[in-house]
Amino acid sequence: MENLYTLTAHELLGILDKKSVSPEDIIESVCSRAAAVDAKVKGYVNIDRPRAASGAPSGKLRGIPVAVKDNICVEGELTTCASKMLSGFRPPYSATVIEKLKAEGAVVLGRTNMDEFAFGSSCEYSAYFPTLNPWDASRIPGGSSGGSAAVVAADEAIMALGSDTGGSIRQPAALCGIVGMKPTYGRVSRYGLIAFASSFDQIGPLTKDVRDAALLLGVIAGYDEKDSTSVNTPVPDYLGCLTGDVKGMKIGIPKEYFVDGMDKEVDAAVREAVALLESKGAKVSEVSLPHTEYAVAVYYILSTAEASSNLARFDGVQYGHRCENPGNILDMYERTRGEGFGAETKRRIILGTYVLSSGYYDAYYLKAQKVRTLIKNDFDKVFGAGFDCILTPTSPTPAFKVGERSSNLLSMYLSDIFTISVNLAGVSAISVPCGFTKSGLPIGMQLIGDYFEEGKLFRAAHAYESHTDWHKRSPKL
Amino acid sequence: MGIKDDKVKYVARLARLKLTDDEVSLIAKQLDGILGYVDKLKERLDISKDTPPMSHPNAASNPFREDRVRASSPVESVLSNAPQKKGNFIKVPRIIEE
Questions:
Q1: Which of A29, A60, A184, A238 is a Cys-bridge partner for A4, taking CB atoms 3.0 to 4.6 Å apart?
Q2: Residues of A catalogued as catalytic
Q3: What superfamily in CATH does domain A4-252+383-472 come from?
């Protein structure tokens, strides 16, 4: 029999139905796999001693081990945002998504590595250690949900949760050769997600194939009165959207996303994917998202402004790190934060505070908010013209080398150039594997959908996947 | 126009963030790079006066929940992560000078 850890959740659920294996067998298989290979990947920061789900014998995810990014609260378990600031922090409650997972019988396996407070695109800004790409240990797995992407790619978890503020699910999914989705803003409750930028953050699935992503989103999506930004609109039957065909779907290719300087192999792989979808009956045509070039600049103003405000709560008072022998209260705040935050976090707090400060607010913050409107209008025009999805590369390059961009901030920030606009507008998007470079690195393509049209994305992505086998390849570890 | 070290020090004070002198000069240099990039793009874009600022993807409305009494978290669990506590309180340095 195949090793259980290599299977998808929907395959495992099929075997469980036949009673040939038990949930304990699955947990055991995945835990042994993690014990055997995680020293090479370093995807986990903590592995719980997982207990087989006690209840929910008929749950939609019964017995399925799920890895969880270190910024999603799990009651009583270490949750640290990969930061010294939260070392030892054990949340007194669980995030809504964790309650939903457990209600369907899933097993929370452990916490995965990330860039500190989700600030980064490479997992190098973790206060613990960098996570390595399972396909090539000299390269980064992407970020900030790099740990979640790496453990799914390395078969150390069946599926994982991440969070996406500017591409933090999709970019690592692409760089690790798996599927990752950022749902529409408001589709999934953010209650219990430690906030980075509250008008951008969404929790979403990282999985081995599209069917698992549809399965997992179906479990975690939905209105939550504990998150006033979650939207009270019914959750469709996502699995029912996987019809296997794209006939008649209108797919737009934004000319602004195929730019000079993009990796040639990425460009070729994505164009081949477009041709394949067209040959299966999709109607493909060029579209324009004219304000794309401003997205990175707008994002780094607005997201750092929100972050500087959100991270004010880490002051040494109620939880987390507190400096030794504080003189007065101001000394306590300043030294606690100076000691607890890493370099990238400090940079973003300073940038965010700067653009909000008196005299700069209008020039930077307010202007960026206006350009955000223009970027949203770009998407509204395309979807208003009847397009079902927009197809782009997920990342302009495959995984880069560890250390290659950590000293050149702008090049690091520009690695999210294709994913950021989606968060600015708040629409939905999925990344699916669409090829490999000659040197064996995964390439991902991104499908962007209108608000609450995740079903269309699953349909197109699943149809593509059923004609290709990129998602079935596994790294040698 | 570059960002001077004393500007970074001023902003760090606003953010209640202690930085070493080395961190201050490094951040000043890095912010210059990032804001330079932002400024370059700003010059190219003409924003109409009528463009409204967007603060959020969802339509702005105030969600209210039903006003009824419900259980809150127990005090012990809420205080369990406090760096210093005394009885049912979190302890901090004196706030009002003597």
A1: A29
A2: 69, 144, 168
A3: Amidase signature (AS) domain (3.90.1300.10)
